[in-house]
Known about the structure:
mainly alpha; two-stranded antiparallel sheet; 8 helices; CATH 1.10.630.10
Amino acid sequence: xxxxxxxxxxxxxxxxxxxxxxxxxxxxxxxxxxxxxxxxxxxxxxxxxxxxxxxxxxxxxxxxxxxxxxxxxxxxxxxxxxxxxxxxxxxxxxxxxxxxxxxxxxxxxxxxxxxxxxxxxxxxxxxxxxxxxxxxxxxxxxxxxxxxxxxxxxxxxxxxxxxxxxxxxxxxxxxxxxxxxxxxxxxxxxxxxxxxxxxxxxxxxxxxxxxxxxxxxxxxxxxxxxxxxxxxxxxxxxxxxxxxxxxxxxxxxxxxxxxxxxxxxxxxxx
Length: 270
């Protein structure tokens, strides 16, 4: 009885030690990355380059970066999961997407700068997924995705967008039979914009429940697609997600075919 217990305790300590080492290495990597950005003459993190940072400030910044990375991986993972599910249900479109990817990167090793500029069809798939999917709740700075967003259906990342009326005003809408209705809104009134209702509204989207990545080709109602929210407090990680999500989608589809494992009765069913 003693030996198994000692083995379990040893194994647990080893596992904890591995986790601790992983966190320490990640923290060191992020601190080095922050310092590297500060040393660049031109960098995207302008405020880092001009604000003196103490050791504690570095750790705070590294902690914020970790949160953005964690949130970005979570939403990217969920969006990709649904995207692959939809592509398995629509093999014809998956094949079209595959051919497009291979026409751009035949060797399967694209430079990162090409991913967003040269893979528009993949971006349309992502946008479609985020338009259709209701995958995350809006928190202080929550994001989701355009179903790899400009990709086919008005999927949803955030579910509602909270607002407070800054002044007395009115909103003009219509009832179920099309009659115009004027709604008075007093200053200080709390409002909730339903992203789900917006993304599935036939007033803005033709056949909103259908899988149509091509709906994001050319002109489309951008003001009616808010998977990352909108305005000054929109998702900080949107570009990070789009880059990561498109890169993963592109590389996986260039190497693998996504299929339903057993039951083919769900083909073309969403």
